[in-house]
């Protein structure tokens, strides 16, 4: 797995964007999503303590304990997202393997997800009785036909995304962005999220995609409005989480890494939408950069 992240400031006077911070990592992961090797840029020797840690709640707790002083930086964001990105990564084999069902039922693969393979009530998509589940609580293998997706890069906004490597063969990508701007006493947020992969037929297919709009009171950091739009999801039950996401209104966004898990646990939430919402915890940091650039 490779990850790249950056913060950029787009000046109001139309001058070129300024890169405020950037980071990357490269890691190797076991079938059970345990970290086997990890190198980061900027280098941080403390991350050696993550070797052997399994993706999920354990990895997030250990990342917070080891590198909590980096919260609000691109490095922390991409490390924190390792849990979710590695969770969905094996989806790519459903597109490339003729014997995907046999592969997915391999014990090493099953135990890397949910509660040692039991997916019941992990999220709204895997609620009891969901079409996503097979008998015994294992994950079903029939995904909705994934949607064709185009390039995220926009020739009219070449600085809108950092450079993305060309992928070939079985390869997944999780792409996320958070755009923040001020409107008087409000912080306006437009966030986007997409999990996609290469297709043996050419092009890319999407398996998860959300768009989130939010208004935050700048002085207090309290979320005032939230709209979560499900665009691409694998199972019929998945979009139900978008309505429940409004339960985050009234909470301070800087607390979202913990608050989202408390307010939207299990079948109240979607694992991937929760990832989008948790990432909004960094909005106050981005807002401070806006204020400094404006001399506020």
Would you write up a description of this structure?
It comes from Sphingomonas oligophenolica. Residues 135-168 are annotated as: Disordered. This is DUF2889 domain-containing protein. The chain has 296 residues and is an alpha+beta fold. The protein folds into two domains: 1-89; 117-296, no CATH class. Helices cover 25% and strands 27% of the residues. The protein contains ten helices and eight strands. Strands 4, 5, 6, 7 and 8 form a five-stranded antiparallel β-sheet that branches. A three-stranded antiparallel β-sheet has the order 1-2-3, covered by helices on one side. Strand 7 and strand 8 form a beta hairpin. Helix 8 runs antiparallel to helix 9 (271-279). The longest helix has 12 residues, at 283-294. The radius of gyration is 19 Å and the shape is globular. The N and C termini lie far apart (40 Å).
Give short descriptive properties of this protein.
DUF2889, three-stranded antiparallel sheet, single chain, five-stranded antiparallel sheet, alpha+beta, 296 residues, 2 domains, 25% helix
Structural class estimated from helices and strands:
alpha+beta
Flag low-confidence runs. none
State Rg.
Answer: 19 Å
Tell me what portion of residues adopts beta-strand conformation: 25-35%
What is the helix content? 25-40%
Main beta-sheet strand count, sense and barrel state: 5 strands, antiparallel
- Number of domains as seen in the coordinates: 2
Look at the structure and give the mean pLDDT: 89
Order of helices and strands: EEEHHHHHHEEEEEHHHH
Approximate shape = globular
Number of helices: 10
β-strand number: 8
Protein name: DUF2889 domain-containing protein
InterPro entries: DUF2889 (IPR021312)
Organism: Sphingomonas oligophenolica
Pfam family, one: DUF2889
